[in-house]
Specification:
The chain is α/β, with parallel strands linked by helices and about 290 residues long. Helices cover about 35% and strands about 10% of the residues. It has helices at about 1-20, 40-45, 70-85, 95-110, 130-135, 145-150, 170-175, 180, 190-200, 240, 250-255, 275-280, and strands spanning about 25, 55, 90-95, 115-120, 205-210, 225, 230-235, 255-260. A 6-stranded parallel β-sheet has the order 2-1-3-4-5-8. It is globular and about 50 Å long.
Length: about 290
């Protein structure tokens, strides 16, 4: 009898704990698919049984290179339904390019996202000779790919929508139609809406590290980026932060911007490394 009572009490505690965790929406990275969340789903189920994890099933594999606005405008209808069905709010966990898609969603939607966990995402842009650049554009290096990317034709590639050549700022602001718009580098007519929606967030948690090997500079995962000398300028010295262009400074002044620097993790290992989940993600799912 006593054993049964203990079992019932523990079961109720576990169920109550699970119900207190907001549903999670996951957005995969470039050249990936919803199964990129498989390990995450396992970690969440062990930690918080019964928690719903929705991995966005859209723009998978090679389709992930279509323009970022195309992806955002399609996915927003998918997540809007999830948000309506979750009046208590949701948490976003978004990886790599997916982190920028989620930032687009947070800008265009009057959302109910509680915490946005951005995992190794080039939030301030990308500028590096990575395996992805070499795979898709073998005839270009980072020094000259701007000739393609900063054109109407080049902007048809998702990578070009967040490619930020620090030596070509004029062309970047002229042609980049996604990241530059979100940062208000192009005096976007929608920036008031973007900023208001972005500030609906409770917290922004950014995870990245020096051994990533893909995000370049890796500090872009924390809104740092190169200057014209390719010296990394930290988030708080960036123009978009100092001018509070889209609400990042306001969020930080509230104490709601958190950065985690995690060494020793290569890019493709972030979402399947238990230590990353246990130490840098799990705690933000109950906050």
């Amino acid at each position: 009898m006593v054993t049964r009572l203990i079992f019932v009490v523990l079961s109720c505690m576990l169920l109550g704990h699970a119900e207190s965790i907001r549903p999670i929406i996951f957005m995969h990275g470039i050249i990936a698919a919803p199964d990129e969340a498989n390990a995450l789903k396992g970690f969440v189920e062990e930690a918080f049984p019964g928690t719903k994890v929705t991995a966005i099933d859209a723009f998978n594999h090679l389709q992930s290179v279509v323009p970022m606005w195309t992806q955002v405008n399609t996915i927003k209808e998918m997540v809007r339904e999830e948000m309506v069905n979750s009046p208590e709010g949701v948490n976003l966990i978004c990886f790599s390019q997916g982190g920028l898609i989620c930032r687009g969603l947070l800008s265009v939607l009057p959302h109910n996202v509680n915490n946005f966990i951005s995992v190794s995402s080039p939030q301030a842009g990308q500028y590096g000779d990575t395996m992805y650049l070499k795979y898709f554009f073998p005839n270009y290096l980072k020094q000259n790919v701007y000739k393609l990317f900063y054109s109407d034709l080049g902007q048809q590639w998702s990578i070009a929508n967040y490619w930020h050549d620090p030596h070509q700022e004029g062309l970047y602001t002229q042609y980049n139609n996604f990241l530059a718009a979100l940062d208000n580098d192009t005096a976007s007519t929608n920036i008031t809406q973007y900023k208001s929606n972005f500030l609906r967030l409770k917290k922004l948690i950014m995870i990245g590290g020096p051994d990533d090997g893909v995000i370049t500079p890796w500090q872009s995962s924390h809104f740092g980026f190169y200057d014209a000398n390719e010296t990394v300028v930290p988030m708080k010295a960036q123009k978009f932060y100092q001018q509070d262009s889209f609400g990042l400074k306001t969020l930080d002044d509230r104490g709601d911007v958190i950065t985690h620097i995690v060494p020793g993790i290569q890019h493709t290992h972030w979402m399947k490394t238990r230590m990353v989940f246990e130490k840098y993600i799990r705690g933000w799912l109950t906050d």
